[in-house]
């Protein structure tokens, strides 16, 4: 096996859990607002993980024009 098969891409589970706890530190009491927050949390975690994957693979999109 090569080292690349063991290379970490994306965020570790612990980091994802930490981010989740941080984003849900003040959950709303209203169920509609909670559903909206959960949707935002999912999208944010996916976005952060995608950014980590891109950085690990060396093809990160840094949101700068012209790159």
Radius of gyration: 16 Å
| Helix proportion range | 55-70%
The largest pleated sheet is described as: none
Question: In what range is the share of β-strand residues?
Answer: under 5%
Distance between the termini: 34 Å
Shape annotation: elongated
Pairing-aware structural class of the strands and helices? Answer: mainly alpha
Mean pLDDT: 86
DSSP helical segment count: 2
- Give start-end ranges of low-pLDDT stretches: none
What series of H and E elements makes up the topology? HH
Question: Got a strand count?
Answer: 0
Write the layout of secondary structure elements.
Blueprint (H helix, E strand, L loop, with lengths): L12 H11 L7 H27 L10
Please provide a written account of the structure:
With 67 residues, the protein is an all-alpha fold. Helices cover 57% and strands 0% of the residues. It has two helices and no strands. The termini are far apart.
List keywords for this structure.
mainly alpha; 2 helices
Question: How is this structure best summarized?
Answer:
By secondary structure, this protein is mostly helical.
């Amino acid at each position: 096996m090569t080292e690349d098969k063991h290379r970490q891409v994306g965020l570790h589970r612990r980091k994802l859990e930490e981010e989740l706890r941080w984003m849900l530190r003040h959950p709303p009491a209203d169920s509609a607002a909670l559903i909206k927050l959960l949707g935002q949390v999912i999208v944010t975690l996916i976005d952060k993980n995608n950014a980590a994957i891109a950085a690990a693979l060396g093809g990160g999109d840094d949101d700068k024009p012209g790159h």
